[in-house]
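Example record

The entry below shows one chain as it appears in the dataset: sequence first, then structure tokens.
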Amino acid sequence: MKDVTELQIYKRAMDLLPRIYELVNQLPRNEFELKSQVCNSAKAISAQITEGFAKKNSQNEFKRFLYMALGSSDETITHLWQIRILNFSNVNCGNCDALIEEYKVESKQINSLIQKIRNPISNV
């Protein structure tokens, strides 16, 4: 793999960003902190995957950044649950639920890649 954009976890993280922004734009203006937190955690996923990929010659460094991306994905899920639980009247709950499920898949796939790096299949 030559480019980070070939990684499915990177593609999903980037594809989900516009949907996150659409959702947070439905939040009340006074919820600027929650908006900022969910956007920052969602943006961090692809950035951490990219930084780790740049260091892929060191498995430990790549894994370290993948763990950070996993944490950011899980943090995004938490913020989405907060939005869901706070039940803002102008937020589409269906969109929120769909994003939660998408980020759960993202977290599982990041974890799967971490496990593959941790336990590489021998070519022998």
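Notes for this example: The CA atoms of residues 55 and 61 lie 6 Å apart. The domain at 9-26+38-118 is CATH 1.20.1440.60 (de novo design (two linked rop proteins)).
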